[in-house]
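Notes continue from the previous slide.

Worked example: a multi-chain complex. Inputs as given:
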Amino acid sequence: MTSDDQPLLEVEDLTTTFSTDDGTLTAVDGIDFDVETGETVCIVGESGSGKTVATESITKIIKTPPGHIEGTVRYKGRDLLSLPESELRQIRGNEIAHIFQNPQEAMNHCYTVGWQITEALQIHRDVSDEEARAKAVDLMDRVGIANASSRFDDYPHEFSGGQKQRVMIAMALVGDPDLLIADEPTTALDVTVQAQILRLLDDLQDEFDMGVLFVTHDLGVVAEIADRIVVMYAGKVMERGDVLDIFDRPAHPYTQQLLECLPEFGGTGGGIPGTLPDPHDPPDGCRFAPRCEYAEEACRTGEQPEEVEVAPDQQVSCVHYGPGGNPSIVRSEGHGPGDGATGGDSEVGPADD
Amino acid sequence: MATKKSEEFDQVDWNEISRSGRFDLSINSIGMLVTTLPLVLLAVYDWQFLGERTPTFQFVGVDRGLESVDFFFIFTLLLAFWFLVLPLYQNPRMTRYYWKEFKQNRPAVVSLVWLGVVFVGGIVGPIVMDPPQQELLIAYQPPVFTSVVDTTPATCVGEVMNGRCYGTWEHPLGTTNAGKDVFTMIVYGMTISMQIAFITTTIVATIGISFGTLSAYAGGWVDEIMMRFVDIILSFPTFLMFLLILYIYGGGLGMFIVVFSLFAWGGTARYVRSKSLSISEEEFIKSSRISGASTYHVIRGHVVPNVASSIITQLTLLIPGFLLFEAQLAFLGIGDSTVPSWGQLISAGRSDLSFAPWIVLAPGIVLFLTILAFNFLGDALLDALNPEAEAENT
């Protein structure tokens, strides 16, 4: 087990680049975050902001080359990026498990789901077929598949989308992982099933005492499941903090605009004008500056601004909160998500400092 | 013992066979090893201790020899039994499913029956039937239910009425210019056809699949070199090569099979490579890697089984080419005229076509039907084994 002062997963300055014909593409550009046992950290951001690449860099399943991963990923104190492939294989599936976005494609149609659930178990441990089967049936039962023992020998096409995602979860949990990386696990599912799966993940997290790293672009899902949020944009972290703090007092203009896209949180439901910057040639200064309505000259020069603590445990990477900046530019103009809502549960005000 | 064994058979299924993380042998591999061992011993015995002309089974008093082609043929039959037929039995659910899909295609079912007849005839025929004997006296007997002018055969075996000689059941498909029974020769030809089909398929599949997956997974310059080698194989003038070998070493059936299959796997390898590449992009490959599977496990357990369904189809469609080519070579008089293949029979009868057409027609029709059957079969297998291809059409 991890000691109390050491996070389960600690990512520092993680940079993932790909060499392409058009030059080097930087998908993830020096991000940090950590995940504690028992908590759920959500990486949020629009498509193409490098969320998936970041999670796949953790266990190095990015193909290298063309990929290239730098930085440190410490899992229970071990630096994963410097481990040889054979030791990484011992960690994958066994200690760090993944769930994918699309359960239809993440299963091999040649094999029964039972085979696929026990696959990870039998790779890592020398268990007999009977033990593996018993464990898989038990897991299928726990993830909510009726008649688990008879469905063990069914093929993936005989399951519905939601059931397949449940099977995927069972596949991930079979090795008793301490960290579960869920990459948009509910995106391919309809809303009712989505809610069931989220609840299931929540229950299982308590039961298995796992850290969960949850990747999504859906803030509605975030509100339901997250303890902490890391907002990513174009390979950089824009803002991070407790889920309630960020939903109530989003500091970064990008976070504010993301929340504004959600009608259910009082936003207008409009989009964010503009598109993601070219990852081959990211803009100077803040990555979001070209699309930011508060951008000033200072935003367009130098590097991505240092993260500034705007509230306890809430950090934001924005010039306006930094030294010499004026947070009220961003916060006072009435672009907080609470404004349009009738309840007005979010109080948007100047920064605490 | 027998009951215990069948129980074990039930418990083993494809899932387990493909599980390569652990090194316990499946019942199929054990069976294969156990049955191959005596075959190898027999081959070594035949090769080392018996003279060229001594029949293999002289020690038990059977006057029949086995040649190297026969040994290979038996080996491929064993392979097919342990790794094709037995798995189907072990996984009755999938077998039923395949059969359900397969039988929707009527021509394919008929084809399968026909190929079954050819297969069984080819295996059992030469064992139960004596080889065709030369009997000049009864040359040119017509097939049963037909008649020829009685001057054509030297002596008519059947009835002679109104100056016509009628065919008899003794020679249901007539006899050749040397008085050999055409039906017997066709049955012996079945063996040759099945030998060509099985051995070439095994060689092409082995080289093609390993070369293709290796190339796909090695990537980079290894892939580049391997694929350029495939280009060379594909553009190689195999026919000229065969002629050359024929003039230097003489061209038996074994030589034909080896030369042509050694230059025929290029297409398969290329196909397997492209298929492997597309499959390795699939999410379940990532999912397997993420569960900690090794590259070998991913290839054996996930890539090859997914490639297999398309490969089986492709190989089935490759067989007719070999059969036709053998027949063409035989017809042109290139090749070993002692091999009792259908092509040789057709070739032998071509000068008598005007008055004894059955010598050419009977084996010709059998050859035609067999090739047609393989084509139908390949088509149906594609639908049955690869439901996605079918789903795309509907």
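Summary box: Chain A has a mean pLDDT of 79. Residues 9-226 of chain A form a domain with the Rossmann fold fold (CATH 3.40.50.300).
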